[in-house]
Amino acid sequence: MRFLAAPLLEQRRMLTERDLSSVTATRAALDRIHEVNPRLRAFVETFDAEAVATAEAADRERADGIERPLLGVPIAVKDDIAVRGHATGRGLRAGRTACADDPPVSALRRAGAVIVGKTALSEGALWATTASRAHGTTRNPLYPGLTAGGSSGGSAAAVAGRLVSVALGSDMGGSIRIPAACCGVVGYKPARPEEAAAEGDWAGLRSVGPIARTVGDCETVAAVIAEARPPVHIRPTPRVAIAQCRIALPPSEFAARATAGAAQQLSAADFDVCEIGPPPSTFAAAAPQRFVVGARSTLRSIDPSTVQRRTRQLAQLIRLLPDRLPGAAAAERNALEGLEAFFDEFDALITPTITHAPPTADAWNELSALSALIRQIRWAGPSPIWNGAGYAAISVPITAAHNGFRPSVQVVVPPGREALMFEIAQAIESGALP
User: Fold this and answer.
1) Residue 18: how many CB atoms within 10 A of its CB?
2) Of 33, 126, 165, 169, which residue has the fewest beta carbons closer than 10 angstroms?
């Protein structure tokens, strides 16, 4: 069906111009989910009757001349985000039924979106590949045999597989951007709100944002769910730094091709591009203390007999760590000061999203916790940094393929420069679109 193959903005146009009804669109999305999901495992639950009822209400509103930003558009939500009346499973066998929507879901409803179901994630949202004892392994629809990434792998697979045009994910250490890069789509992690408490949602690491097929689609949904933020002044010709940001390994040909493609595209678009070495102050900004606090809270209620080996061992490891890691707060503070100085010199930074092509879908499912963490850091090292810093980041594919796989880069900006970030991402995307 043409509607399902279209990106969000085109779907919205088709609904607004009444090329089809929201009920027809929603039923088509649900039919495709039921057809493909037994193999893909992108969804853990669908809301068939509820979604059709919401679509019927959207059609009535449109008939009355009412329009809203996402009126009647089918959208999915990751299963660690609360949706009123449905369990929040977090990649586990059981979850509590939510009494209220999380704020991003409430924002989607106000914009008229049709929530069609919940998408799969890794156990406790802890891993960069999406698999669990409860729901199996999520497959990559664009690159069969490879992982869909994680932890928001179900959301990325649902978008890449043309089940929905947009799905919400959550990002604690790359969990939106990594699966977006694995599945050849776009993923946006918003900046951390200033009021986020250090002991709050994943100790301030977690952001909820969209995964979509285009940068414009991500920007549209980001505007719906975001809080207003005053813009920050930038230069008339923005200075963009491009770096490999090496983590544990020298830069790979895969990562080098990604950044070279972005540099070429941005230079052609008249940005002031400067290729630099890895900014050293960024590496301490991953905030291990925040990860320990967030993981401990997540793992506290897990039944060891129902999860994978890596999750079970991580729960044991986290219990052995102290509540406060020595020097962590000072290291984070020093890192953030270094980042502020760096972003006084440059308006934006571009790095690879992942350092190598994705592993096979089941490769890491039963690794030990230590082995899984080491591989995860080496593969996705450039991404978790920005959760610790609280900066905004978007992952976007580039044009050139490497051994049949299109790499992605992430564009990183401090809070207040999101408009520039989307502009840069669209310039990169313009060379990647067919």
Assistant:
1) 11
2) 33
